[in-house]
TrEMBL record:
Alphabetical UniProt keywords: Signal
Cross-referenced InterPro entries: DUF4124 (IPR025392)
Domain DUF4124: 12-62
Lineage: Bacteria, Pseudomonadati, Pseudomonadota, Betaproteobacteria, Rhodocyclales
Transmembrane segments: none
Region annotation (Disordered) ranges: 32-134
Pfam families hit by this protein: DUF4124 (PF13511)
Name of the protein in question: DUF4124 domain-containing protein
UniProt entry tagged with the keyword Disulfide bond: no
């Protein structure tokens, strides 16, 4: 176990030494740009330092996992709320359409001239007279005019 840890430490040491290596850049006789870890033979190259991105810089530009999770949950909640709102609007529209259809059928039955029976407070059946029929027709037309456009 100690040998493994020692070998791992030595390997990490050599790997860290390679991070600070210089890179040379030059153009060959064809005008092609060449990058190498060794300087060109016979001509001075331009040494360049390789900069590894620091963890602080990358975390500043990238959002943390907690921030991304929070944003995801917020978008998910907004999506759910908009779906619920759309469903409520759709059900309200369907109820309104059903109410309008029922009112139109009622108006059609009232205008047809057929005898229409109703029930009084005692539960006994009676037939509408002409005055009640006209009153119900006027009410049905007003309901259709105000709610069913």
């Amino acid at each position: 176990m100690k040998r493994f840890v020692f070998t791992l430490a030595v390997t990490a040491l050599f790997a860290a030494a390679g991070v600070n290596a210089q890179v040379y850049q030059w153009k060959d006789e064809n005008g092609k740009t060449i990058y190498s870890d060794k300087p060109p033979i016979g001509a001075p190259g331009q040494p360049q330092k390789i900069h590894a991105p620091s963890p602080a810089a990358s975390s500043a530009t990238q959002k943390t996992l907690a921030d991304r999770d929070l944003e995801f949950r917020k978008r998910q909640k907004e999506s759910q709320e908009s779906a619920e709102k759309a469903q409520k609007e759709q059900s309200a529209s369907a109820e309104k359409q059903q109410y309008c259809d029922n009112t139109r059928r009622r108006l059609q039955a009232l205008e047809s001239g057929e005898r229409i029976s109703m029930h009084d407070d005692k539960g006994e059946r009676y037939y509408m007279d002409d005055a009640q029929r006209e009153k119900e027709i006027t009410k049905a037309r007003q309901d259709i005019g105000s709610n069913c456009r």
